[in-house]
Hints:
The longest helix has 20 residues, at about 140-155. α3 packs across α5 and α6 packs antiparallel against α7. By secondary structure, the protein is of the alpha+beta class. It is elongated. It folds into 3 domains: about 5-60, no CATH class; about 65-155, no CATH class; about 185-255, no CATH class. It has 8 helices and 7 strands, in the order βββααααααααββββ.
Amino acid sequence: xxxxxKRIWSAANGELKTAWIVDYADNRGDRQRKHFQTKKAAxxxxxxxxxQLQSGIYRAAANKMTVRDACISFLDRCEGRNQxxxxxxxxxxxxxxGHIQNYILHSEHGVGDHKLSQFTTRSVGDFRDRIRTxxxxxxxxxxxxxxxxxxxxxxxxxxxxxxxxxxxxxVIGPRGEGSKKIExxxxxxxxxxxxxxxxxxxxxxxxxASTGARAGEQWAVRWGDVDFAKHELxxxxxxxxxxxxxxxxxxxxxxx
Length: 256
């Protein structure tokens, strides 16, 4: 439990100084101490920290670490995973960097200076509303919040905070706005495009139309993936814009 005590001391000029101190043991059993100018402020903090300790959500670092600190640490970890080939492509790393630098840490509508202890679901909701007002689309906003969710999960794993304010937060846009269903071209339209395409593009279009392979999967196909006897194509890898090969994004992506 936390306790409040009054401290009186003399400054160098002989003036008497007064402060109210809250002493408590954190979730790791380490002693913590915080100073306040008034007893009311000290009591308010004591009640809050006792509630957090009782519910198991108190983290000492949450009062020191900011969202910016968590983002920097998260990107460092992602870079390490990329170097160790731990399911982190350069493309995904670039996406994370873009979301963090261009939105989460934006000088106007970003949240980089928020302390983790004060970064609540409401804070994330306000951030969502600001970037939507700035013109960010619903699909992009959802992706940005997904990155922020990953940053906060990283902060939890480092014991810097106990809660993820981005968890379960929804992004609702106007009716009809959002990811559009992709409508494939008709056979007639496909024939018209193939007829006017040069030899290289014609081969690419015919291959894609015949197999249903995505662009990244198509460029990763090797002769060993083609079974001429069974007239089958085996999809078991993809390649990204950096020329790096990897497995398809899901188990269902491996197919024939």
